Amino acid sequence: MHRETPPFWWRERSIAARLLAPAAYVYGRVAGRNLAKGKRADVGVPVLCVGNFTVGGGGKTPTAMALGHAARAAGFTPGFVSRGYGRAGRAAVLVDPAHHSSAEVGDEPLLLATVAPTAVAADRKRAAAMLRTERGVDFIIMDDGFQSAHLQIDYALIAVDARRGLGNGAVIPAGPLRAPLIDQIRAADALLVIGPGAAADPLIRRTARANKPVFEAAIAAPDGERFRGMRILAFAGIADPGKFYDSLAELGAEIAETRDFPDHHVFSKTDMDELSAAAWRSGLQLVTTRKDAVRLSTGGEATRLFMKECEVLDVVLGFQPPSLGARIIRDTQRAFRRRQYG
Questions:
Q1: Cα–Cα nearest to 122, from 98, 86, 156, 154
Q2: Where are the alpha helices (DSSP H) in 283-320?
Q3: DSSP labels, 193-204
Q4: How confident is the model at residue 7 (pLDDT cuts 50, 70, 90)?
């Protein structure tokens, strides 16, 4: 996983992409074979994986959170499994938002744990076993992990940002794809297209030709009205900061300045001092994402004080139609039963 994706990944095929094509071919062969033949553990409960075809943010975590609510509404005791990107250590840990920092468990798991019990581990089957034995979980939702060979997946839902799509369509390191697209489509159960935009249209057509369903969802800001007319300095350390800035602009905020940081960025005192000074000089309100706020709020005293200067844009994912979440949960349960009992 890359902290910051190269800009050429998100443009038409460049010289850099062509030069890296031989390495991408080798990477793709290995990744495709792992996807098709990797030995996966049966954890004894339904497993729903929310993944991406590409490196970088495509809406996985908001999708997983929405599905956690749908699973609970369907009568399950759901739990989330995550690798916990960027955290210290590899052991299985049950996430406690009141006591853990993002450095200990990762930023996405802290968000997931606000919805349902969450466990992180480099070995996802250990995380799943911990959820089952210590929290009585009977439905696992994996945030990422589609391409790994860890858990037996009953339903693989692939999230894609309609505005960003698949970039140049090449495999790592020539582009953002984690494995050859045909191999990934073959292993997926459905595609979830998030938000407006046409960048994902070629993928939608290929997925439909493969007889895989294509679903839709949208991101909304429940309290977004408060940003209308606000003059802001927006900053973000996520995979696609532009999506965050666009959301603020659509809410009517006046974005005077923006500051981009790498995905999962750990903010230093210098970062915070510079942001604070820049906002003060121009009379701007600092605004960031919830994922960045989680990292800041679980840091030291300096980061917690800095967060008092910041507003946070909260977003939620809504399925279209709203009943779609329940359908995905049902389909996962049915696939699990077929796998278990034939």
A1: 86
A2: 290-297, 301-307
A3: EESS-STTHHHH
A4: confident
